[in-house]
Amino acid sequence: MDTRILDRFRAIVGGDGLLTEPEQLRTYECDGLTNFRVLPSAVVLPTSTEQVQAVVRVCHEARIPFVARGSGTGLSGGALPIEHGIVISLTRMNRILEVDISNARVVVEPGVLNLSVTQAVWPHYFYAPDPSSQQVCSIGGNVAENSGGAHCLKYGFTTTHVLGLEVVLPDGSLVHLGGPTLDRPGYDLCGVFVGSEGTLGIATKVILRVVRRPALIQTLLAAFHSTNEAGAAVSGIIAAGVLPAAIEMMDNLAIRAAEAAVHPNYPDCGGLLLVELDGPAAEVAALMVQVRAICTSCGAWEIRLAQSEEERAAVWKGRKAAFAAMGRISPNYIVQDGVIPRTALPEVMSEIERLSGQAGLRVANVFHAGDGNLHPLVLYDARIEGQEGRAERLAFSILELCVKAGGSITGEHGVGEEKKAFMPVMFAEPDLDTMQRVRCAFDPERLSNPTKVFPRPRLCAEKTGPYQPHPLETAGIAQLF
Fold it and tell me: Is-contact 143 129, C-beta < 8 A?
């Protein structure tokens, strides 16, 4: 990169706020999805909104693409650097600016960690969206990906809890989207920005809604012989009108991995359900009777209720450690993130098992069963020639299966770099063109994370027209590999 540009960045953020040495840049060459790696030209670490604005203005003037990055825990390559571009790391903007308990809201900078929000308002309130990485993931990244978590079944995803945003647009101007109240006139531009994966600008301040802590929280474990039986129990619970705070499911491979890693004392079974209810004590007690009866009728051979806060914490520690725990049973694995209708769960699980056997690879399943958000983990050994390619083909076939079942290619991890080629499988040309028009309205020069989400991001000056044909539009995913 031109030294004059680097000097301008250095003047804005100081010498310790600019990284240019190759060994420093390696830290930022990928996010949690390590299959893709690009070395950025530089990394800038601003400490204020004003510094972010100044850096982005330089990028806009020099036509330098940039990628905003938080903790780097994303799993879709959303924070992958752009060639000849810079990374704007927001980890130093990590202040909680305001805690307003009276109005149940908190104002934070984007580098604040997810769990820190709950810690700031505990024990009377909490921040509901709780990704498994909540101890290390940042709010800015959660906003970019519209992150979910186990308790989003009842409380909603990140977008439900973002009231307002301060945003630096790709030309360096500052705008405020939404506000401190739920009801605002005009277009819901705050809702447009949440989940846009960094393609519309950089959030520098976030107004979050926090939730009153329930009077009682109870967590039940139910062991089944198979995931099909556990899936039937999930459908039965929802059909009965019970809305748990969370319903999570793990298969035997996932159970074994979690047990080896953090010892949550899970039963050794084919399918494990974690069902959490919260609310007034009398209501929780009555609903728990229903849940127990439904699980028993669907074949649960062991039902266990956490008897203390320590037991409950251990239950959730096992679930939240499941992804990382896969290293206990496999040297390599691919995390996928598809969504299906709950009623399709038995058929989809059976088909995943068939595809797994056909590929000769194991698949561990951990998912948010209540909202049909699957996380199949395809296990392989990169040291064995051909296994990585087979694992990728299997992972992509599972995504195709989710779409055919009436679902989605992603529930909470985002499209990013990994899944942009699959967008035409799910969306028609008019849908994609409308999304592109929104992107062009915010970023006509295509500077803000420009290569992500879309299979072929069109130039904002080009005339509206059909996309160039993509192989996925004319061939099944599995046929491409």
Answer: no
Domains and CATH numbers, the chain: 3-89 (3.30.43.10), 96-212 (3.30.465.10), 216-324 (3.30.70.2190), 330-404 (3.30.70.2740)
| Neighbouring-strand partners of residue 108 | 96, 206
86-89 vs 373-380, strand pairing mode: unpaired
Distances (CA, A) of 215 to 102, 142, 279, 437, 463: 18, 27, 6, 46, 57
Distance between CA 293 and CA 89 in Å, rounded?
A: 50
Q: Which residue has the tokens 């539009």?
A: 473
Q: How confident is the model at residue 346 (pLDDT cuts 50, 70, 90)?
A: confident
With CA atoms as reference, report the closest residue to 195 among 153, 151, 147, 128. Answer: 147
CA atoms within 13 A on the CB side of 63: 3
| Whole-prediction pTM | 0.92
Separation in Å, CA 264 to CA 154, 268, 310, 318: 24, 11, 11, 5
Structure confidence by residue, pLDDT tens digits, 378-430 = 999 999 999 999 999 999 999 999 999 999 999 999 999 999 999 999 999 99
Rounded CA separation 450/421 (Å): 15
- Residue (of 41, 74, 71) closest to 59 by Cα position: 41
Q: Which pairing describes strands 86-89 and 66-69: parallel, antiparallel, or unpaired? A: parallel
3-class secondary-structure state, position 36? coil
What is the DSSP code string of 408-461? BS-SSS--TTTSGGGHHHH--HHHHHHHHHHHHHH-TT--BSTTSSSSSPPPTT
Instruction: Output the CA–CA distances (angstroms, integers) from residue 377 to 356, 363, 373, 436, in the order listed.
Output: 11, 5, 13, 31
Count each helix (H run) and each strand (E run) in the chain, helices first.
18, 19
Q: Are strands 363-368 and 373-380 parallel, antiparallel or unpaired?
A: antiparallel
Q: Tokens at residue 375, please? A: 């996380």
Residue type, 268: D
